[in-house]
Specification:
Elements (H helix, E strand, L loop, with lengths): L2 H13 L7 H6 L8 H13 L3 E4 L2 E4 L4 H27 L5 E6 L1 H4 L9 E7 L4 H11 L16 E8 L10 H9 L1 E6 L2 H8 L17 E2 L10 H23 L7 E2 L3 E3 L5 H18 L1
Parallel strand pairs: 4-5, 6-7
Antiparallel strand pairs: 1-2, 3-4, 3-6, 5-9, 8-9
């Protein structure tokens, strides 16, 4: 893959979301090509000069898409209030000791929210507590959750992803999921969980080789020791997990559509966003190849 094609491909991917990029962002999110910032900047300058792409206020975008610059600025302003709201949700969730990490994903993670968007949250749980954690997280955030009927969505919490720390690797490996992982922004972290999550998904470098993870301060979770009752405590936790798993699966049975429910990972998305994004991406690449 040439640097020219990689640069255009990077702009094409983010154009799907009406999201023009700065020079540093193009280099940081460059698709499939290892490069320093200087040659990326030179390539962008040549593409602008050749009128293959446009530039405005330090942002670069595909030809004819100048309107996305103002759109990104507007969405950034909307996102500020949502980020404060997300931090509020994350602080509430801190009382659950089985939560190891709370992060934001989706448009908010890129500060690219629509005004009426909800707030997508990713939770990583301690081993063997996936369904127990989901149950209590939903109870705690119940007054703030989005309405499943679609009547209350804006600024509401959406618990989209739950991951058990015993299996942090996301599958399958593709460009869409690489972006989702890299765009994820931790709100707080315990026991170096974010670092372990990134290490488990080092495969993202195959798609985004210049990307670097966020620097996160990790707290140490203080758990009381109950050595004399470890056997009882372990089995009570196991029974609780199995009971809450059965209860939640029974409740969701008639509602499951595109959700992905695994042993250690839960992905609750009402639409197959990956298929839609990659379809739009291929259309843009074909269009660029024909120019």
């Amino acid at each position: 893959m040439t640097l020219l094609y990689s640069t255009l491909a990077t702009l094409a991917y983010h154009d799907i979301f009406d999201y023009p990029l700065t020079l540093s962002e193009v280099r940081h999110l460059l698709v499939g090509k290892k490069a320093t910032q200087a040659p990326v900047g030179q390539e962008l300058a040549r593409l602008v000069k050749a009128k293959k792409i446009g530039a405005k206020d330090g942002y670069f975008y595909l030809k004819g898409r100048a309107k996305t610059v103002n759109l990104r600025k507007q969405r950034s302003r909307w996102s500020k209030a949502k980020l404060k709201r997300a931090s509020f949700f994350a602080q509430i969730l801190k009382v659950i000791p089985t939560i190891k990490l709370v992060a934001i994903s989706g448009a908010l993670a890129m500060k690219n929210c629509h005004k009426d968007d909800d707030i997508d949250l990713v939770l990583i749980t301690s081993a063997g507590s996936l369904w127990t954690t989901r149950f209590f997280a939903n109870i705690l955030l119940l007054p703030f959750k989005r309405d499943p009927r679609g009547q209350k969505i804006a600024n509401r919490a959406c618990l989209n992803v739950f991951i058990d720390e015993s299996d942090l690797k996301i599958r399958p490996q593709n460009l869409y999921l690489a972006h989702e992982i890299c765009q994820m922004k931790p709100l707080w972290d315990r026991d170096g969980t974010y670092s372990r999550f990134i290490q488990a998904n080092s495969w993202v470098k195959k798609y985004l080789p210049n990307w670097q993870p966020n620097r996160v301060t990790s707290a140490k979770l203080q758990v009381p020791s109950y050595k004399s009752n470890q056997f009882i405590t372990y089995h009570l936790a196991l029974i609780t997990e199995r009971t809450l798993r059965s209860f939640q699966l029974a409740y969701m049975k008639s509602k499951i559509t595109t959700e992905k429910i695994g042993k250690h990972q839960l992905f609750f998305h009402p639409q197959d966003t990956e298929k839609w994004v990659m379809g739009k991406y291929q259309i843009r690449l074909k269009r660029l190849s024909g120019n």
